[in-house]
Amino acid sequence: MRDDSGKQGRSSHSAAEILKGLASVDPGPAWVEFLDRYSRLIMSAANQFEYRQDRIDECFFFVCEQLSDNGFRRLLNFNVRGKARFRTWLGTVVFNLCVGWHRR
User: What's the confidence (pLDDT) of residue 5?
Assistant: First the structure.
């Protein structure tokens, strides 16, 4: 089965199912799956802003913190019925968070 990242699935959950899990009483498993699936995208964006590994790691953790903040508010703003693919939308959100981190 193909996941939203375009890779043969390690998981059978769609992005919509992961988001549903993040909105649940126990979001932990969905967060782990989200990170498993999308941490490479987040790290790639962080690499665009920094060259030192410690700073790349700081940016990565900042982005993850922001994505999980307030009950995953940013992630849950994604419109699953809209035209945008989750991965494309997420890339934009992550890029903007990296810009914010870099400016501070």
Answer: 45
State pLDDT tens for residues 34-78.
999 999 999 999 999 888 999 999 999 999 999 999 999 999 999
Quick one: what percent of the chain has pLDDT higher than 90? 78
Reference 42, options 29, 58, 54; nearest CA is 58
Task: For 61-97, give one letter per residue: b (16+ CB within 10 A) or e.
Answer: ebbbebbbeeebebbeebeeeeeeebeebbbebbbeb
CA distance 85 to 74: 15
From CA 101, how far away is CA 98, in angstroms rounded? 5
Task: Tell me the pTM.
Answer: 0.85
